[in-house]
Write a structure and sequence with these properties.
Homodimer. The chain is α/β, with parallel strands linked by helices. It contains 17 helices and twelve strands. The chain has three domains: 89 residues, Aspartate Aminotransferase, domain 1 (Alpha-Beta Complex); 246 residues, Type I PLP-dependent aspartate aminotransferase-like (Major domain) (Aspartate Aminotransferase, domain 2); 117 residues, Aspartate Aminotransferase, domain 1.
Amino acid sequence: MASPGSGFWSFGAEEGSAAAESPGTARAWCQVAQKFTGGIGNKLCALLYGDTEKPVETGARAAPGAAEPRPACTCDKKPCGCQKAEVNYAFLHSTDLLPACNGEITTMSFLQDVVDILLQYVVKSFDRSTKVIDFHYPNELLQEYNWELADQPQTLEEILLNCRTTLKYAIKTGHPRYFNQLSTGLDMVGLAADWLTSAANTNMFTYEIAPVFVLLEYVTLRKMREMIGWPGGCGDGIFSPGGAISNMYAMLIARFKMFPEVKEKGMAAIPRLVAFTSEHSHFSVKKGAAALGIGTDSVILIRCDERGKMIPSDLERRILEAKQKGFVPFLVSATAGTTVYGAFDPLIAIADICKKYKIWMHVDGAWGGGLLMSRKHKWKLNGVERANSVTWNPHKMMGVPLQCSALLVREEGLMQSCNQMHASYLFQQDKHYDLSYDTGDKALQCGRHVDVFKLWLMWRAKGTTGFEAQIDKCLELAEYLYNKIKNREGYEMVFDGKPQHTNVCFWYIPLSLRSMEDNEERMSRLMKVAPVIKARMMEYGTTMVSYQPLGDKVNFFRMVISNPAATHQDIDFLIDEIERLGQDL
């Protein structure tokens, strides 16, 4: 594939910072925004600079009961440049929006009101005085609102109410005190990119219908491969619907590499295959084996040490054992950043074993891949450059809006050979441009969402150094939490030593259990502590953090930090809140 070149498409290491706006600049910005955006400019000024900077609303909405006729547009410009008219949504439906004749005013008014709802939600997401969650039980929400689909259309007034209600009960995943999942935060540039992507509403299978997006995917995947350490960013890759699918792609390609005949003849034509992964690896490895007809029994789990890292000697032992049984080892899936402990498997030792036995080495870096952006922490992935394939989810540690997952492959052309079906209605061979940019035939999907633009635009806005600072901050916050609780009364760490990633795993021990002997009764009671505290967190809406059992360990809290909005004060709040909610247990 020919290179699109540098300049506009390429990534800089650092972007210049804008100077802080003076009040005069803010007012000037408001005036420009009002001139070109009408109601949207007014709303932005009110939200960003306060009501004192907000001019008189030019298009206040009529009262719901007033059936005022819409003024006709006399503007000959398309789209209409007239001021926002008074629009009574109670008498309007989606058929009154574009492409309806003379639908410009209604459409602009409606979309401005949707943006108003979104902006209010965005601002509240960062307000620590607001709830992370307004929790209701499923039966309560089902009874309180009518969610059913009907034959007759709702009015636009009802549609706007649906939008407000949906966001009212949505989890504020961008809230500084939301720590529940690996994907948290709300990036403003990423959000803008997501809006633009939806407006473009195209498919990623050919250059002819997604020219810029296809080029951005090429450039971004090459940059990611460079950061893995493959010379010149060589290889291939694709953005897929999440890390589970990326891992399945790796398994699919590894099988094809060893037995290309499987594509036409199926599993019956090849020997019994086995894959290896750690007992702490993501469940998607087994799920992929099930989906591909390999079978979950053919995924052999390798023992881990006390920190959750794969033990290389056990891997080699199990490979030899499988070969003696007549099975064919075809894949080792190492993990860079396990879901619960945040452990990094010893990739160099695993690479040596894979080379020795000629086995495809995959690295599931869905959670830990982002550390490649950090000069301070990328050593934890030493050896990743020897992998045949890597999963990397920018929607986790890098804070890109969901979803954004990449599968990177070291050997160029292999993915295309594995998956292509030569659909002639899409991939005509006599097109007038370079056909290597028609990337759809190497994907399992036909329809493929544009996931790259969010990552590319954020990378342009932050530079690599911006992502580095963001990731370093999250890891520093995790170490801060660890240092706060490791010797604090009422806390026990699940494993010794500071965390490698932002995962901090611990038990909170209520006062009633602190003097109990460590026996079965104590474990039985301790198992109930985290679920009760988590339920209370959700009912109060103050914060959210995950918990789970693992092996012989009863329920413990797994704190993860990937939200750049979080601060030391939010960590302190979490500790105080756990103690407040668990003091009577």
